[in-house]
Structures are given as structure tokens and as C-alpha cells.
Amino acid sequence: MRDLAAICKLVLTEKKDILYSILFGFIAGIAAIGMFAASGYLISKAFLLTPLYALIIVTSFVKLLGFTRAFSRFGERYVSHRATFTILGNLRATFFEKLEPLAPSIFTKYRSGDLLARVVSDVESLQNFFLRVLYPPIVLLIVFLSTVVFTMFFSAYIAWILLAGMLLTVFVIPTIFAFRQSKIDPMVRQKRSELSTELNEFFQGFRDLKIHSKLQEKEQAVLGISESYIEEQERESINKTYNLSLNTFVTLLFSWIIVAVGAYLVTVGDLEGVFLAMLIMISLTVFEDVSPMAVFPAYLQESKQSATRLFSIFRKEERPEEHVHAKQRLQDGPLSIEMDQVSFSFQQKHETTTLSNINLQIKAGEKIAIVGPSGSGKSTLLQLILNLYQPNEGQVRINGLPLHEVDEQSLWQQTNVMLQENQFFFGTIRDNLKLAGDHLSDQSLIQALEKVNLNHFTLDDAIFEKGDNLSGGEKQRLAIARAMLKGGCLWLLDEPTSSLDAVMEHSILSSLYEQAHEATVLLVSHRLKGLEEMDQIIQMSEGTIVESGTFAELMSKKGYFYEMKQLEKEML
């Protein structure tokens, strides 16, 4: 219920539309009952040969109530849907604001398809919270109780029958089916999440599945999950249909009871016969408004499940220390970096340690090379500095500030980043380069392309999704150009030239070092060539720092780095 309370807070931001919805809904409901009550009274009066002028008055009243009902219903639909769309927009924005700081560590615990199902399907499901759960029962109760009070002026017995019917159809029957729905709904959501996840992986990996002749197997798996999802949907629909059918049966049964009791009261003289048709029409009309209560339990349970699925992510992932310390912006200029006994694991239970007891001091403006075999933790170390992941133990400091106290935006604004995997978006060369800054002119973009030998491209050349129309080397050079355009004082480069030939690598690194001569630079590489000018070389292996020092110091030690350098020479 705490998650549903959070949704209620968002809903209550639209208090004005909520009040209008209740007001228009009440007017529409009362007008409908009044119109049919007047129609029943008109039928009885016409049968008794009432003067024409009296019938004209009643007829005009019926028409007036008809217009009132139509306009009120339109107003209620318009205002309630306007509020719903605004609420959904606010909910999506709130969800994204909470989710964005958790990326990319969130993907180690939740599959992207599951997150997609939550942000799309679960948010969409919550539109029914306002339209079907929050205000309709309020309108129904006000209309029903007003009708019961009105009916008591003609017959207390009929009024009590209406009240009993209301209790049965509004509370008792929906509660019974709500219990059944609570067992069905979680399975529907689970299957929907599984289907979304499998479809996402199917489309993302379509090419590889086809190449390895596994497409048919994956199709069968997706179809199997789809069929399971359809079965759960059928169970949910059957439960809703039974609920609606039973509710309809009970409302009609009570209408028949009112007919029988009303006829008896007329015969014994406790009710004027001219009012019998009116009371029957009232019962038929007021119970029409009860039909939404048949699906109320389903929508309530659906809203609870959706709210829980959305906000459970943040309860598990939120870091308490972020609320204790105020965020501080970093000053412009080269940044210093310190790591004190830092350990990190991608596994929640620490089965596999990626980094262990890392102690590191990098002065502002230093040029650092981090080398080591694949899987030694080099890339992970950069991601900890970027605050994309948080260490399990120890502390990372930037300019002497603990990283969790640093404003992430100020850190990222001052950092030129090139990771092993760089995202390219569907669009043009210009669109992808302008990720470094919307203010950049076309001339500066062209100059950046020239520095990385991509001047054969134009700014209007198309880029496919994920850069599928670019070679590996072109992707790396485009990513380097984007980093150069950023203009930050901290460079984090993860294998920036691994797909380039030696001549191209030397040319591009020379341009890069020239631009970054006053900045702090961390270069991750598995190649040991060209590291002589680095201020410090950090040799890593199996998640630990084996040795560190200048190129000359490490060569003189004849340790791990020396052995790797000799092996590289022999291979070349």
C-alpha cells in the first residue's frame, strides 16, 4: 500500500481535475436517475389521462435532464482523461528520474526487457487507477445514497431494498472476486515481463541467432512464453467476466424484487400506483452505475501490483548515504583521484570479486596508463571513477571529496570518456557528435573529424542504430572525436585505439595528448607500446594492482610489467 500511496501523491497534484470529475460524475449520475424516474412517472400519468399541459411539463423536464446528463458525462470524461494523461506523464518522468542515477548498475540485477515492461506496461496499467479505482466509487456512493434518501419519501421498504442491493453489489461480491484476482494478477505480470524480456533479446540478437542457426529455437521459446501469457490473460478475463455477470444478475434480481414488493405495496395501499413505474425505473438506472464495481477489484489489484513493481526497484537500490551528504560541484581544472582499499564485485553476494583492495593516488594533471590482461579489472576501475558503479568496500575520492558527495553532473561535464563500448544513435554524424554539446558549430565538428582522419565523412552522413554501418575502427575514431569535442579536464580512455593500425594509432594519440597536455589522463590499454612518456604505469592482474611506477622504474624492477613487455617484443 505504501507504493500505491506514492501514486496517490502524484494523482493529488491534479486536485482541481479530480474535484471536477467527481462533480460532473455526480451530476451525470443524478441526471440519469432523474430522467428515467421522470420517464416512469410520465408513463403512469399518461395512462391515467392526465391533462396535456402536465404531460408537457414532465416531458420538458425529461429532455432537460437528458441534455444535462449528456453534457455532464462529456465534461466528466474530458476532465478525468485530461487528469489521467497528466498523471501518467508525471509518473513516467518521476520513474525515469529515479531510475537514471541507478544506471548502469541496475542492469546487473534487472534485465532490460523487464525494465521496459515496467516503464511501459505497468505505467500504462496505472491509468486505470484514477479512471476506475479512485474517483468512480466516490461518485457511485454519493449518487446511490442520494437515490436511497430520495426513495424513502415514497417507500421506506423500497429504499432498504436498494440499500441492501448496494451493499451486496458494491462491497460483498467485489470483495470475493478481489481475493481471486489477487492470486491471478501476479502471474499475469510475471508472464508479461518474461515475454517482454524474451522479445527484447530476440530482436537485439536476431542477427547472431540467425548466423548460428538458433533462430527457430528462440522463436519456439518466445512462442511458449507467449502462450503462457495468453493463458494467464484468459484466466484474468474469465474472473472479470464472472464478476460482471454475477453483479449484473444480482442487480436484475433486486430490480425484480422491487417490482414484486412495489406491486404488493400498491395493492395494500402503502404506495400510490402512479409512483410504481418511477421506482422501478430508478432501480434499473441506479444499478447500471454499479457495473463498474464489478471490475473495481481487478483494477485495484492491477494498480497495486503495478505500483509495487515500479517502486520496488528503488527501495532495493537506493543508497542511503546519498541523502546524508549534500552534493558538491567540482571546480574546473584537472582532477586528482584517490582510491582507498576499494573492492568491487558485480555479484550481489560477492561470489566473484572484480577488484580487490585497490589503493591508488593520481595527482591532478598526471598521465596514467593502466595495463594488464583481459579481465584484470581495468575497465571496471574507470567505471568506479565515473560513479557508474559503487564500490562494495573502500572509498573513491575526486579532488579529496568522497565520490558519493560529488555532484555527478559536474563530474561528467568535466570528463571526456571513451569506453570499450560506445553508443551510437540512429541519425547523422552531426547528431552523434553533438552529444558532446549542443552549442558546437559545424566547423568545430569538421575539425574534430579531421583530427581522427574521418574527413571522408560529411556531417549529414547517416548513422544506423548502434553504428552498424561503421567499421570497428571508424566507431573508435568517431568516439575519440566526440571525446575531443567535450573539452573536459579528465580523460578516461578505455582501449581507445584497439581497432586501429599502428600508424593511425600514433597519429590520433598524438593529437589527443596534445589537446590533453594539462588535463588528467587515464589510459587503459593491453598494449605496452608508447607508454614511455606516461607519468605512471599501473600494472593490474586478477583485480589487483601488481606494481606501479614510471616506465623506467618498472623495466628496472624486471617484474610483471618487464616480463609482459619482453613477451610483447617476442610476439612482434
UniProtKB/TrEMBL annotation:
Q: What is its main location?
A: membrane
> Which InterPro entries is this protein grouped with?
AAA+_ATPase, ABC1_TM_dom, ABC1_TM_sf, ABC_CydC/D, ABC_transporter-like_ATP-bd, ABC_transporter-like_CS, P-loop_NTPase, Type_1_exporter
Top-rank taxon of the source lineage equals: Bacteria
Subcellular location field? Cell membrane
Report whether Transmembrane helix shows up as a keyword of the record: yes
Topology in the lipid bilayer is annotated as:
Multi-pass membrane protein
Q: Name all ABC transmembrane type-1 domain ranges.
A: 21-302
- What Gene3D superfamilies does this protein map onto? ABC transporter type 1, transmembrane domain, P-loop containing nucleotide triphosphate hydrolases
- Keyword Transmembrane helix applies: yes
Instruction: Give the transmembrane ranges.
Output: 18-42, 48-67, 133-154, 160-179, 244-267
- Sequence ranges assigned to domain ABC transporter in this UniProt record: 337-567
Query: What PROSITE patterns has UniProt attached to this entry?
Result: ABC_TM1F, ABC_TRANSPORTER_1, ABC_TRANSPORTER_2
Do you know which Pfam families this protein is assigned to?
ABC_membrane (PF00664), ABC_tran (PF00005)
Q: What is this protein called?
A: Thiol reductant ABC exporter subunit CydC
Alphabetically ordered keywords of this record: ATP-binding, Membrane, Nucleotide-binding, Transmembrane, Transmembrane helix
